Amino acid sequence: MKKKSVVNLLVWVVFSSIIIWSMSEGANSAQPSEPSKKKVTYAVVIGTSSVGSSGYTQGVGIANLISKKAPGISVTARPVGGSDANVRAVRDGKVEMAIVNAFSAVQGCLGQGIYSSEGKAPLRLLLQGFLTPRFIVTRKASRIEKLADLQGKTIIGKRPAMADIEVATLAYLEIAGIPKDKVKIVETVETGETLEALKIGSVDAALLPTTFLSPGFQELSRTTDIVVPSLTQDQANKIIERLGPAFRPMKVPPGTFKGQEKEILTIATPMILMVRDDLSQDVVYMVVKTLLDNYKDVKAIHSEAQYWSLENTLELPPLALHDGVVKLFKEKGVWTPHLEGWQKNRLSESK
Q1: What does the alpha-carbon distance between residue 23 and residue 128 come to, in Å, rounded to a whole number?
Q2: pLDDT in tens, 70-112
Q3: Three-class SS state of 77
Q4: Where along the chain do the CATH 3.40.190.10 domains lie?
Q5: Alpha-carbon 13 to chain mean position
Q6: C or N: which end of the chain has fewer Cβ atoms within 10 Å?
Q7: Which CATH architecture has domain 132-269?
Q8: CA Rg, the chain, in Å?
Q9: Judging by beta carbons within 10 Å of its beta carbon (0-12, 13-18, 19+), is residue 116 exposed, middle or buried?
Q10: Distance of alpha carbon 248 from its chain centroid, rounded?
Q11: Which residues contact 96 (CB under 8 A, 6 or more apart)?
């Protein structure tokens, strides 16, 4: 009898424990759960030009810096191709942001030029960087000293991935008073191919979309006798008027490349870091803040990376800025009534 009582007692204790545990779990499940303290990680892809280009090198450096310094954001760089390909990649959501030339970005945003049948793209500016000139370079053996001498010559002036090259070439011919059918315009697919054609003499001239300090152009000037015809101020103004606000005049000081004895006036369009307008304001804010707060690290990425600055971004910006950038600039005290009015005008144009 005593043994039975002990068993009954044990059964009662176990049963009671189960009931108490069940009630406790029910009470806990009725309470709202504690919010997770784990930080959300945003994966962002920056579209760039081809591997080995200045744009790709800077894109990789920017991606690594943001990933290292910005909490909760992981960034990688992807070589998409030319600026037009990157504009479409951002527009279609294949990459979150991209480094492109301002001309392509403005055309895509407004649905103009090669984008006229595709409609306007909701693109916004993050930062503005280095200038990339669009200049005519000729072989000295072709005896082209000024733009008018291009008549009857063969010139590289087209590229499938960069529509602005042909647009700029035609603008140069127009201000020189040369009908399109009075020159032979040929096409290449990349800058390296263009440089090689100039070296071997298969063309007389080319319109180059590269910086004067790029390794490829510097090598060309060392191995081939070349001439870069300078524009007059009136010619530069007329070309910029035709090409639009994404272009501006650029002066190249003497001695920038081998054989250059005088200052050269040409035109250029800035490279920009841009995104779709619907990318998270918080992500954009943190990306731009990270780059500006770590400007010394940005400058160390590449010789041209020094131009990714607040000052350059606010100098004639070609696109409306993203809301996340506006928020940051307001915090920094650099957002003025003039910029606010400019922003409203750009947003109105892009609708």
Answers
A1: 62
A2: 999 999 999 998 899 999 999 999 999 999 999 999 999 999 9
A3: strand
A4: 42-131+270-350, 132-269
A5: 71
A6: N
A7: 3-Layer(aba) Sandwich (3.40)
A8: 29
A9: exposed
A10: 17
A11: 44, 45, 46, 90, 275, 276, 279
